[in-house]
Amino acid sequence: METSIIRKKLHQFIETIEDKKAEAIYTLFEDEIDQGEWEYSDEFKAELDSRYEYYKNGGRMISASEADEQITRILASSKSK
Question: Positive or negative, the Cα torsion across 32, 34, 48, 56?
């Protein structure tokens, strides 16, 4: 069964189950659900703001393909060591 179908069935199931069952399912996956809720530090937010300002003011950016090439080179060089 395709994942998209599984997700739809799960959504439908969760929408219609009894409260106690919903609470039990949530308890099973609570840690994983909470990991999806990111809270960024003020320092990290400031860094993102700084990078965005740099970009808005014409700072040099690289394309996704250039980033992929750099990452591939770095990973290849770290494996050869």
Answer: positive
Instruction: Show the tokens assigned to 50.
Output: 């700084």
Structural domain boundaries in the chain: 3-35, 42-79
pTM above 0.90, yes or no: no
In the chain, what is the straight-line distance between the N-terminal and C-terminal CA atoms, in Å? 43
- The amino acid occupying position 17 is I
User: Residue 62 corresponds to which amino acid?
Assistant: I
The structure tokens listed for 48 are 């993102």
Question: What tokens were used for 53?
Answer: 């300002």
Mean pLDDT computed over 44-59: 94
Buried b (16+ CB within 10 A) or exposed e, 53-67: eeeeeeeeeeeeeee
Tally the C-alpha atoms within 13 A of residue 51's C-alpha that lie toward its C-beta. 7
